[in-house]
Each structure stands twice: as structure tokens, then as C-alpha cells.
Amino acid sequence: MNAWETILVAFGGNAILLTVLAFLSKSLLEKLFARDTKRFETDLQAKADVAIEHLRSQFQIQGIEHQVRFSRLHEKRAEVIAELYGLLVLALWEAESFVSPIEWVGEPNKQEKHQTAMNKLVELYRYFDQHRIYLPEQLCESLDQLIKEVRSNVINFGVWVKYRDETLQEHAAKNKQAAWDASWKAIKDEIPLARSRLENEFRILLGSLPSIQTNEQPKSISNSSG
Fold this sequence. Notes:
Strand content: under 5%
CATH class of the domain at 77-206: Mainly Alpha
CATH architecture of the domain at 77-206: Up-down Bundle
Number of helices: 4
Helix content: over 70%
Low-confidence stretches: 211-226
Mean pLDDT: 78
Structural class: mainly alpha
Largest sheet: none
CATH topology of the domain at 77-206: Four Helix Bundle (Hemerythrin (Met), subunit A)
Order of helices and strands: HHHH
Number of strands: 0
């Protein structure tokens, strides 16, 4: 073998060796990278599972807390409605008794009935005003309007009860009778309709009726003074 052949063999052998080393190195790096990638994916998935489970637990806790708060709010609202409706009924009874044209023997006189009716209306409104935060705005407006309407009719006739009929001139006596008739008509005809609508709103709020209502006007209900 001459010198040139020796040089070619030497360089050719090194080239093959370098090629083999390069291939082995690439293969080893690819395996190491694949292994690290798999480990990274496994670690990442494990951390993600832990994070998801933590979020699920947090959502469950928040859901339970929300249910508890909602349950307590509904119980408080039901308590307020029950007390409020009881005060409303008492006020309506006293207002009706005051403006009623029928008077029984042994009953308090009109001035005493007027004072009792006004006291009940004040008691009703104070409780309502202190607890209106538990009621929807629309319901508050309905109740506010009803109380004002009853109070207005009680006052309109109430200004006359301190005057005895025999002391009034003819036109004043007619005005007193007109105020009395108007108040009685409102208490017997208009107030029951407003009360019926209000009762319906109470029932909807308490969940006793569906939230979708028809446009049919509620029927008038009797408003007994007993």
C-alpha cells in the first residue's frame, strides 16, 4: 500500500467513525429528549389534575355556601312576609271598621276607631319600611301604594269625625257624608282588588305559584272586619 492509499484509509476510517458517533449521539439525545418530554408531560398532567381537583373542591364549597345563604335569605323573607301580611290584615280590619256605615251597640266611637286605624297603619308602615330590603322593588311599590291608599281614605273621613252632625251646616254635613261614602266604597271595592294583587305577588315570591301569570284580573275577595 503506498502513501496515498494509507492517507485515504486513515481519513476514510475517521469519517466513518465520526458519522457513527454523530448518529449515536443524535439517537441518544432523541431518547433523552423523549424521556424528559414524557416526564414533563406526566408531571404537568399530575399538577393539572391537582389544580382541577382543587378548583372543583372550591366550587363545591362555594356552591354549598351559596345554597346556605339562599336558604337563610328565603327563610328570612318568608318570616318578613308572614309578619307583614299579618300587620296588613289588622290594619285593613281596623280601617274597614272605622269607615263602615254599620255601627254596633257597645263599640268604640268613630274618633276612637279612627285613632286605632291610624295606629295600625303606622305600625304596618314602620315594619314595612324597616324590612323592605327583603322584598323586590315591584312588590314594595305595590305595598307602598296600598298603604297610602288606605291611609288616605282613613284620613279623608277622619277629619270629620270630631264634628258632631248637629253642629255642622248643611253643606258641611253633605261633605262629611260624601267623604264617608267615598272612603267606604274604596275600602269595600278598590282596596280588596289591590290586596288580592298583593297577595298574589307574595305567593309568587314564596314559590307557591308559577312565575308566569296570565293577564286576567284577580277576583275581588271579601275583606271581613272580624
